[in-house]
Amino acid sequence: MFDPKLSQLVYGMINYLYQEQNWQSQMSQLITDPNELLDILQLVPEQLLSGAILASEQFKLRVPRAFVAKMQKSDPLDPLLLQVLPHHLELEEHAGFVTDPLGEEAANQLAGVLHKYKSRFLLTLTGACAVHCRYCFRRHFPYQENLPKNDDWQQIKSYLLDHPDINEVILSGGDPLTLSNRKLAVWLERLASLQQIKILRIHSRVPIVIPERIDEELTYLLKNSRLRVILVVHANHAAELDATTCGKLAQLVQQQILVLNQSVLLKGVNNSAEILVELSQRLFEAGVLPYYLHVLDKVKGAHHFDLQANTIDQIYTDLLANLPGYLVPKLVREIAGEKNKTPLFGAVTF
Ligand SMILES: *Cc1c(COP(=O)(O)O)cnc(C)c1O
Ligand code: SF4
Fold first, then answer.
1. Residues enclosing ligand 1, CB less than 6 A?
2. Which tens digits make up the pLDDT trace of 21-44?
3. Best residue among 27, 104, 133 to mutate for probing ligand 2, ranked by most atoms within 8 Å of CB
4. Coil, strand or helix: which one is 120?
5. What is the rounded CA–CA span in Å between residue 350 and residue 346?
6. What are the pLDDT digits (tens) for 267-320?
7. CA distance linking residue 68 with residue 263, whole number of Å
8. What pLDDT score does 323 carry?
9. How far apart (Å, rounded) are the C-alpha atoms in residues 320 and 31?
10. pTM, two decimal places
11. Rounded distance, CA 203 to CA 122, Å?
């Protein structure tokens, strides 16, 4: 006996339960099997699957169920699905698409540390992410050899003291919010013990893919630090911002935590001004401001997300025409060796 109404009801209840689960159990139940993902989404196209399995051998599928619940069923082109489903096009070689597009290996002085910009210091405490985004520039980065061990703090501390210009530490990825609150608390305390550090920035996609990560303990931790805390989340499409997600982000904003969003401009996902306008508006409803719109880093395996310069130009022109200035993210590219992210629009002429 198969009653579609009943199965829909059951599915709805399961979704509800996942939403209610704490974030650790969601982390332990990530989907890593392309078959299972397609099954949940009621997709069967064979060619998608064979390519997906091959591509996932290079960079594993990894996606939380709460994020999958935001996808449309039976839509192989769902913009959220395209961000996470391994694709056979990833296996193609393309000129200019390399494993380390940002030359980060060269910028590495200490394990887990990147100091490329004057006042900011980027610290990677974990190589793990809650989701694997197919376009990620870190998909080939050798995390494992490159994480600080617990007693590396003394070295990091000396480095910071030797560079008094640094007043902001950015916890980045991997994804720092895959760490336990207890581990985060230890690092927050360490960093707050240095008077020169004023700002702690956390770059994380976890609040978008597992909104329950914003639990009371974390909120308390961020709110009560001596450091001014900025959370930069990463959403590319308004469909990623459902009521639960927006509610959690708004909760942080209410605690005086500045929440910003960065996106990557991706073919097939958000390559229209209309989609980006909706994203900015939805973010604003949650009290979040758009920060950066990155053009794709030319990482091997991500060529099929790439857009032509004139297309990007047109999208950004339309975005400017359709949003108030405070809802327009800065269009940037990261160029190896530059002192800052490079703005890409409107060459200045006096
Ligand atoms: C992006 C980035 C930062 C932060 O740059 P902002 O422009 O301040 O957001 C800092 N360090 C590194 C290595 C980065 O890649
Ligand atoms: S570092 Fe960010 S963009 Fe890359 S896979 Fe992890 S969550 Fe996705």
1. 114, 116-117, 120, 122, 170, 334, 340-341
2. 799 999 999 999 999 999 999 998
3. 133
4. strand
5. 12
6. 999 999 999 999 999 999 999 999 999 999 999 999 999 999 999 999 999 999
7. 19
8. 98
9. 38
10. 0.92
11. 10
